[in-house]
Amino acid sequence: MNESLNLVLRLVEAGLVMVAAYLIVRFTLSVTKRTLQHVEPTFLAKILMVEKLIVYFIALIIAISIISLETITMSILLGVLVIGLIVMFYDLLRNMGAEYYVRVYRPFKIGDWIELNGVTGRVVNINALSTTIETIKGERVTIPHVYMLNNPILNKTTQSGIVAKFNVGIPFDIDPLEARKIIRDIVESIRGELADDPEIKILRTERNYIIFDVETIILNPAKIQYIKKHIERELKKFWDHAEVY
Fold it and tell me: 181 and 202: one domain?
């Protein structure tokens, strides 16, 4: 009799746990919807589904632990099950976390020019697992979102155009101040292609060259190669071994 009553009480407690889980799910989903109302509906639906599964899964574990007479054994088995599920879905969870980062924090959007590990391109597609960019040469590069979690993303897009940075190498025996003035004059000769005045500074010396860092905002991103070639061509009129890269 006592065992039957004890079992009934356990079942009632387990039922209360599931009811509590239902109420928690309703509350957390409403909070998430309000917090992430700017997120795309399809991705928001994924987040809500994951929240729901996590809460119900935890509630189910607690309910089974309450009903089970061999609590220790059941807890061990459930612990092993949880660890197994985490290991099994590790990559999936990482991908979902990466997608959450891209969709919610929005470090870039379609049409933006971004740079990642030296590769620059315009964002042409964003899906659940990766982002595709198109370089100035027309090459398409697909970047997994997981890769973005551990590598900094530089969004080069501004309201006026994109930020362009390149180096200019001038022979070491040239007066740096004179070289800087000539570089500035050459860059400003194409002022119509720029959104602001260029910033030019001496960066370092290497291989018998003085390296200048040139930074400006280009109105048309597609012309960056044209601009670099124009600057190099004009510089070679002064110094045959000048380089732009």
Answer: yes
Query: Is residue 217 included in any domain, yes or no?
Result: yes
For the record, the structure tokens of 109 come out as 């959007």
DSSP designation for 157: B
Note the pLDDT tens digit of each residue in 154-175: 898 888 888 888 899 998 888 8
Instruction: Provide the domain limits for residue 208.
Output: 162-244
Q: Report the predicted TM-score, pTM, of the whole model to 2 decimal places.
A: 0.56
- Identify the CA nearest to 227 among candidates 195, 199, 196, 186: 186
* Spatial CB neighbours of 20, under 8 Å, sequence gap ≥ 6: 59
Question: At 126, phi and psi to the nearest 5?
Answer: -130, 120
For residue range 5-51, list pLDDT tens digits in order.
777 788 888 888 889 989 998 998 888 888 877 767 777 787 788 88
Strands (E), 135-230: 140-144, 154-155, 162-171, 199-206, 209-218
Tokens of 174: 């040239």
CATH assignment at residue 192: 3.30.70.100
In the structure, what pLDDT confidence band is assigned to residue 125 with cuts at 50, 70 and 90?
very high
